[in-house]
């Protein structure tokens, strides 16, 4: 995270004051959560809530439950959220939180008690105008429902806007379940239109909520999805995957790799398939320096957070393989979360058509500005021009330009609020 910010800061000539502020989160809360287990014993879990920046609005970011969770990860994710909300120009900052726990070892009752305990611990620093959590790894709309209920109980009034990603029955927004993929489609269509490219074939790594919806949307637009995968492996078909069939296989067997009418492949094999578009919608660090040379896609879209390592990112840039970065490509999720917050606070709810219409406008505007800043950065840097001409350097990437776009807005907000 800091390395990416440094690169963009150099292109932007970010002021030293803004840089030193953004290198440090505004607030870090460490909490201990005692939970009465079903056995009767008390077990104490550790949790965090990090607010990286609230200079442009309330902090916004998910809550993840993971046995491998650590503070450095949460700090980085909170900072990325500040960048992401700024890229798409919604009036929010960045936050992240979570609990160090293996949820597979908890009963439903234990999971609910843990969630309510976490809310009790972080309640002083969250709220619709302070910090608005959302679902993330191993959390979902049911858990968000418990969080909203517990916070409302503590406040003595219904406060659905404290979290987003809730069930529709208690203040959720239509379109939120597929928002990340839908936003990705809008970004893809706008990018292809702007640069004059076409996508006829695609490969999708990850078939969860994001990857599954993305594969479906690509399929509906007539793009041949050659392969899909999940934690159980992948499946490939030169004729194109039957996406409804993949959903059936997932429901019946727990993995898309066992669907009929395709060849089983590993995730590593999937990454090396020749295609127009590779969609990374699984986990972080999937494309690395040790496997990036095998990538044969003409372009890549990151719908997962951090699926390409910084080292691999540079190699792809030198190979002139464009990457639509996570902070832009998957920002549809936080954008519709913002819509949910707006609807909660106004107590007026929108149709799916209105959600999609407003999402498309925001995503298109964000892509346009990132492309414009990419052009301006390349034109203004004589040093970069010389490196590219000599073959030593590579053009400004969309990731660098997205960071520049976000940091410009954050720095301006700091100046107007008198912080720098």
- What is the residue-averaged pLDDT? 95
Question: What structural class do helix, strand and pairing data support?
Answer: alpha/beta
Distance between the termini: 22 Å
The major sheet is characterized as: 7 strands, mixed
Rg: 21 Å
Write the element-wise H/E pattern from the N-terminal end onward.
HHEEEHEHEHHEHEEHEHEEHEHHHHH
**Percent helix among the residues?**
40-55%
Give unreliable regions as ranges: none
Content of β-strand: 15-25%
The number of distinct helices, counting runs of at least 4 residues, comes to 15
Extended strand count: 12
What does this structure look like?
With 420 residues, the chain is α/β, with parallel strands linked by helices. 46% of the residues lie in helices and 18% in strands. The chain contains 15 helices and twelve strands. The chain has helices spanning 2-12, 16-22, 71-87, 108-122, 141-155, 179-195, 209-220, 243-253, 267-271, 310-318, 326-329, 332-346, 352-380, 382-390, 398-416; strands at residues 27-36, 42-53, 59-66, 94-100, 131-135, 201-205, 224-230, 233-236, 263-265, 274-280, 296-302, 323-324. The strands form two sheets. A seven-stranded mixed sheet has the order 9-8-7-6-10-11-12. A five-stranded mixed sheet has the order 1-2-4-3-5. The longest helix is centred in the last third of the chain and has 29 residues, at 352-380. The mean pLDDT is 95.
């Amino acid at each position: 995270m800091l390395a990416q910010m440094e690169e963009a800061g150099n292109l932007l000539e970010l002021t030293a004051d803004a840089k030193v502020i953004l290198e440090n989160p505004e607030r870090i809360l460490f909490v201990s959560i005692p939970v009465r287990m079903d056995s009767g014993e008390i077990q104490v879990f550790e949790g965090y809530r990090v607010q990286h920046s609230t200079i442009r609005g309330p902090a916004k970011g998910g809550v993840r439950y993971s046995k491998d969770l650590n503070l450095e990860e949460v700090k980085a994710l909170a900072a990325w959220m500040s960048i992401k909300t700024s890229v798409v120009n919604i009036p929010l900052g960045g936050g992240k939180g979570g609990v160090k726990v293996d949820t597979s070892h908890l009963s439903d009752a234990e999971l609910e008690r843990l969630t309510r305990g976490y809310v009790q611990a972080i309640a002083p620093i969250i709220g619709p105008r302070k910090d608005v959590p959302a679902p993330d790894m191993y959390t979902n709309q049911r858990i968000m429902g418990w969080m909203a209920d517990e916070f409302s109980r503590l406040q003595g009034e219904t406060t659905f806007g404290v979290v987003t990603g809730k069930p529709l029955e208690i203040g959720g927004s239509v379109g939120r379940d597929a928002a990340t993929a839908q936003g990705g489609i809008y970004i893809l269509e706008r990018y292809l239109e702007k640069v004059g490219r076409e996508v006829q074939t695609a490969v999708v790594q990850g078939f969860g909520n994001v990857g599954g919806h993305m594969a479906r949307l690509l399929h509906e637009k007539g793009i041949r999805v050659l392969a899909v995968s999940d934690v159980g492996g992948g499946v490939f078909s030169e004729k194109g995957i039957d996406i409804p069939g993949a959903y059936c296989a997932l429901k019946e067997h727990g993995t898309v790799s066992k669907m009929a009418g395709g060849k089983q492949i590993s995730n590593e094999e999937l990454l090396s398939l020749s295609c127009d578009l590779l969609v990374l919608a699984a986990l972080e660090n999937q494309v690395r320096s040790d496997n990036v040379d095998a990538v044969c896609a003409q372009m890549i879209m990151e719908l997962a957070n951090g699926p390409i390592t910084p080292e691999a990112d540079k190699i792809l840039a030198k190979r002139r393989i464009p990457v639509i970065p996570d902070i832009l490509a998957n920002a549809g999720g936080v954008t519709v979360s913002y819509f949910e917050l707006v609807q909660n606070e106004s107590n007026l709810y929108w149709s799916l058509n209105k959600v999609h219409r407003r999402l498309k406008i925001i995503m298109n505007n964000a892509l346009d500005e990132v492309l414009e800043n990419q052009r301006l950065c390349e034109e203004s840097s004589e040093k970069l021009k010389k490196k590219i001409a000599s073959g030593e350097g590579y053009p400004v990437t969309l990731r660098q330009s997205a960071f520049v776009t976000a940091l410009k807005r954050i720095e301006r907000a700091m100046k107007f609020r008198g912080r720098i």
